[in-house]
Design a protein that fits this description.
The protein has 123 residues and is of the alpha/beta class. The protein has helices spanning 11-21, 33-42, 59-68, 86-94, 107-118; strands spanning 3-7, 26-30, 47-51, 76-81, 99-102. It starts with a strand and ends in a 5-residue tail after the last helix.
Length: 123
């Protein structure tokens, strides 16, 4: 079973995601970028669901950082954010994300995007 790490400072969002995809994937949680960095050392996920607006290191900066770490650069990342402007979405994808979901989101759309990203082939 593939592993997903959910990084969001909002406990309700983490719970919604876990309930939405927890039967298909192993879901672990982190409340911040620092917490997530520690979890990466213990258990490398196949995919990260990453909130952009978090205290401390924000999701965009953390996404850029992960893309520079060779041992984690192949992890798929989907940004989840209330930022919905086209330029904000483009900035997220340019930071190295494989996908972008805006809040609020439906569990069906979330699952569909996770499956799309996990099935992407690198050319």
């Amino acid at each position: 079973m593939k592993k997903i790490l959910v990084i969001d400072d909002n406990a309700e969002i983490r719970k919604l995601i876990k309930v939405s995809v927890g039967t298909k994937y192993i879901v672990t949680e982190a409340i911040s970028a620092v917490d997530a960095s520690l979890r990466l050392e213990d258990d490398k996920p196949d995919l990260i669901l990453l909130d952009i607006m978090m205290p401390g290191v924000n999701g965009l900066d953390w996404c850029k950082l992960i893309r520079r770490w060779y041992e984690y650069s192949d992890i798929k990342i989907i940004l989840i954010s209330a930022l919905i402007q086209q330029n904000e979405i483009i900035e997220g994808l340019q930071a190295g994300a494989n996908g972008y979901i805006t809040k609020p989101f439906s569990p069906t759309h979330l699952l569909s995007e996770i499956e799309r990203v996990l099935n992407e082939q690198i050319v």
